[in-house]
Amino acid sequence: MNQNPLDVIKNNDDALFNNVLSGRKLAFQDGALSAKHKILIALALDAAHGSSTGVKSLAKQALDAGATKEEILETLRVTLYISGVGSVYTAAYGLNEIF
C-alpha cells in the first residue's frame, strides 16, 4: 500500500486528521525513551493486536530510526512472552517483505 491509510480521513475531516498527527508527534518524539524504542513498543503492540500491516509499517519506521533486525526480533521475544505465539505469527506476516 503506497497511500496513507488515513487519506480518507484527511480528505474528509481535516481536524480529525490533524488531531491524529498531533498525537503521533507527541507519542513518538524523543524524550526519556528514544523514538526508535517507542516505535519498537508500537510494533509489539500491533503484533499483539493482530495487525500485520502495522507491524510491516512500524518495522520500516524502526529500521529508518536506526533499529537493527536483531532489536526488532528481540522486541518480538517480549511480545511472545506477554501476548503469545499468535503475535509472532502476525509479526511474521508483516516482516515477510522486510527481512
SSE layout and pairings?
Blueprint: H1 7-12, H2 14-28, H3 35-48, H4 52-64, H5 69-83, H6 85-95
CATH class of the largest domain: Mainly Alpha
Number of strands: 0
State the end-to-end CA separation.
18 Å
Largest sheet: none
- Rg, rounded, reads 14 Å
How many structural domains are formed by the residues? Answer: 2
Count of helical segments?
6
Strand content: under 5%
Query: From the 3D coordinates, which CATH architecture of the largest domain would you assign?
Result: Up-down Bundle
Specify the helix fraction band. Answer: over 70%
Task: Describe the global form.
Answer: globular
Q: According to CATH, what is the topology of the largest domain?
A: AhpD-like
Order of helices and strands: HHHHHH
Residue windows where pLDDT falls under 50 for at least 5 positions? none
Q: Kindly state the mean pLDDT as a whole number?
A: 96
Structural class: mainly alpha
Q: Which homologous superfamily in CATH is the superfamily of the largest domain?
A: AhpD-like
